[in-house]
Specification:
The chain is mainly α and about 220 residues long. It has 3 domains: about 5-100, Winged helix-like DNA-binding domain superfamily/Winged helix DNA-binding domain (Arc Repressor Mutant, subunit A), CATH 1.10.10; about 110-150, no CATH class; about 155-205, no CATH class. It has helices spanning about 30-35, 45-70, 75-85, 90-100, 105-120, 125-130, 135-150, 155-165, 180-195, 195-205, and strands at about 5-10, 15-20, 20-25. The protein has a 3-stranded antiparallel β-sheet. Strand 2 (about 15-20) and strand 3 (about 20-25) form a beta hairpin. Helix 5 (about 105-120) packs across helix 7 (about 135-150). The longest helix has 26 residues, at about 45-70. It starts with a strand and ends in a 10-residue tail after the last helix.
């Protein structure tokens, strides 16, 4: 019969060794409550069941700890749990439970991130960040469209360029005194910020030495 030969506890968790080999990492309270201690002998079937239950409890604890730092998408939670070595069945069970509890909600996560990033960046960059975090394309596009509704991307791009290049804030702050090289820098800066190409080009023209008059 399998026998627990060693238990190493650290920071509320234990690493359990059976017959000299590593068996599982579990929450310390869970292990104690299940009667897992050095010298204990358990049937194979009992060990298998305990491992599944214990892995799920540990994965949930880790997921809640991750979410305590900041909101995360479902994809981010899955990836982090896989990196800890949890099997796919455990990851799926934990994510489903987190959804039920409302701790993982990609739509709400996308809205929060859009509001936060939208204070500094344009819609293209915000949408790209959402996709990078695991939000699907359709949801990312819809949420970004909502976040930027009613806002003038041209005026926001102008203000971003003015802050970056230390221009004043008056109505003629961006006319004259520039160069084609500076216009190219402004264009590149605004493109990296995620503003539409036509908006970037229009603001960049205003940073040329003799920008054309607007119609």
């Amino acid at each position: 019969m399998p026998r627990i030969t060693r238990i190493r506890e650290r920071r509320g968790r234990v690493r359990v060794f059976i017959d000299g080999g590593f068996w599982a990492e579990l929450e310390a309270d869970f292990a104690a409550g299940c009667g897992l201690f050095e010298g204990a002998e358990l049937e194979e079937e009992e060990l298998d069941a305990l491992r599944v239950e214990g892995e799920r409890a540990l994965a949930m604890s880790r997921a809640l700890n991750l979410l305590g730092y900041r909101p995360r998408s479902e994809k981010e939670v899955r990836e982090r749990l896989r990196r800890f070595g949890h099997p796919e069945g455990v990851v799926q069970a934990v994510v489903e439970r987190l959804r039920e509890l409302g701790y993982v909600d990609d739509e709400e996560f996308a809205r929060q991130l859009s509001r936060e990033k939208g204070r500094r960046y344009g819609p293209r960059r915000v949408a790209a960040e959402l996709r990078r975090r695991g939000v699907d394309d359709e949801l990312a596009d819809r949420v970004v469209e909502e976040a930027f509704a009613g806002r003038s991307q041209l005026e926001e791009a102008r203000r971003a360029a003015a802050r970056r290049y230390n221009r004043g804030g008056g109505s003629d702050y961006n006319r004259g005194g520039g160069s084609d090289a500076q216009a190219r820098r402004v264009y590149g800066f605004l493109m990296r910020r995620g503003y539409p190409a036509e908006v970037c080009a229009r603001v960049a023209r205003e940073y040329r030495a003799d920008p054309p008059e607007e119609a």
